Amino acid sequence: MASTAGTIGWIGLGRMGEAMVKRLLKAGHSVTVWNRTAAKAEPLVEYGASIAASKQALSSCDVVFTMVSTTDDLKEVLFGAGGLVTGSAKPKVVVDSSSISQEGSAEIREHLEALGVAYLCTPVSGNAKVAKAGKLLTVSSGPKALYDQAEPFLQAMARKVMWVGEGELARVWKIAHNTMFGVVIQNLCEITVLAEKAGIPRHVFLESINDSVLGSMYTRYKTPMLTNLTFDQVTFTPKLLLKDMDLGLAAAKSYGVAMPAAAATRESVSRMVGRGHDNIDFAVLLAETAKDAGLELKSENVKMSDGLEA
Ligand SMILES: NC(=O)c1ccc[n+]([C@@H]2O[C@H](COP(=O)([O-])OP(=O)(O)OC[C@H]3O[C@@H](n4cnc5c(N)ncnc54)[C@H](OP(=O)(O)O)[C@@H]3O)[C@@H](O)[C@H]2O)c1
Predict the structure, then answer these.
(1) Interval 161-184: pLDDT, tens
(2) How far is 241 from 231, CA to CA, in rounded Å?
(3) Distances from the Cα of 261 to the Cα of 184, 187, 197, 210, 264, angstroms
(4) What is the pLDDT of residue 308?
(5) Radius of gyration over every alpha carbon of the chain, rounded to an integer in angstroms
(6) What is the mean pLDDT of residues 56-78?
(7) CB atoms within 10 A of CB 169
(8) Which residues, at least 6 apart from 74, have a Cβ–Cβ distance to it below 8 Å?
(9) 82-119 as b/e, with b when 16 or more CB fall inside 10 Å?
(10) Which of 19, 32, 59, 133 is the most exposed place for a label (fewest CB within 10 A)?
């Protein structure tokens, strides 16, 4: 197998990881990738990626990025059987972009730093389509000098990169961000159902919100799916959103902050998960909200911009 010294390693080629790696490759970086389900790695070869035979094979990379699902999954790929840092060689740096808890991240930092591996938390704002368009925001925390070293790689994946401080602060940032992400979709679904039940076509209402002071990249890129009910084009699942609402409420509890809007949203998302919505986009919340209002939704079959075109 080819040496990975001096190259970037990447673990986790789900929706986000795949799109982010492609940005790095497009910017001319050498990236060696590993994914638990190997079939997801193979298509990246034509974009210039090399494939590692195991996680541990990435230990000779200078920097290894990780983008997996949960805190436990990150622990598993780093410290579990055959984990990245469990052999004699270790990467110099791990940069993690998964959305995980502050406490879990602190444990991971302690463990990595004890092994001599530097650790930067770099969660992101934006879905895979946003990542493909190079429009992610990355927000990092950890040693500032480490962030400065990683910045060129982050720039290759994002439209804007930020450092918010030491330690796990970027985890708190992401938890706060995703709490708003949940609350906004909850309210957007409620008001869209209200407007439609009163007689305003969905696409007309969403267009008006997008062009109001309340519109955002988020409301714009969810608009085609909300208009045409294409929830099978999964960007982020109800289960991942529930994980993030739980992280938000746990952080609120530990810092003593009341978050009534987030609490109500968490229950709504939990009900959606409990109804069996799994491999589907979280925007299916619109259909659930309509059902609760006795409104039967139909695709409006209108071509709407997602605002992400080049
Ligand atoms: N989707 C979004 O819009 C979005 C936006 C920002 C942040 N995020 C966050 O980014 C992270 C990834 O999200 P995603 O949408 O890319 O999820 P995803 O499509 O479900 O991908 C998850 C990735 O993690 C890997 N993985 C999970 N558990 C693992 C384990 N125990 N060992 C090894 N690999 C494991 C999966 O491998 P397999 O392929 O083998 O399953 C896959 O590569 C999550 O923390 C999510 O909350 C998502």
Answers:
(1) 999 999 999 999 999 999 999 999
(2) 15
(3) 10, 10, 23, 22, 5
(4) 85
(5) 20
(6) 97
(7) 18
(8) 66, 68, 96, 98, 100, 104, 108
(9) ebbbeeeebbebbbbbbbbbbebbeebbeebeeeebbb
(10) 133
CB 82 within 8 A of CB 64: no
Pocket probe mutation, ligand 1, options 11, 13, 16, 54, max atoms within 8 Å of Cβ: 16
What would the two tokens of residue 216 be? 């955002």
Q: How confident is the model at residue 7 (pLDDT cuts 50, 70, 90)?
A: confident
Q: Which amino acid is at 164?
A: V
The CA-CA-CA angle for residues 76, 80, 81, to 5°, reads: 135
Could you give the CA distance from residue 150 to residue 148 in angstroms, rounded to a whole number? Answer: 6
- Give the pLDDT confidence score for residue 18 in this predicted structure: 98
Token pair listed for 288: 């659930």
Q: How far is the C-alpha of 189 from the C-alpha of 54, rounded, in Å?
A: 43
Residue nearest ligand 1's atom 18 by CA: 14
Query: Cα–Cα distance between 107 and 308 in angstroms, integer?
Result: 37
Q: Where are the domains of the chain?
A: 8-167, 172-292
Question: Domain 8-167 class?
Answer: alpha beta
- Whether the CB of 20 sits within 6 Å of ligand 1: no
CATH class of residue range 172-292: mainly alpha
Average pLDDT value for residue range 188-194: 98
228 CA distance to ligand 1 middle (Å): 26
Give the pLDDT confidence score for residue 293 in this predicted structure.
98
pLDDT the model gives residue 2? 42
How many angstroms does the Cα of residue 294 sit away from the middle of ligand 1? 35
Rounded to the nearest integer, the mean pLDDT of the chain is 95
* Sign of the torsion angle spanned by Cα atoms 186, 190, 193, 196: negative
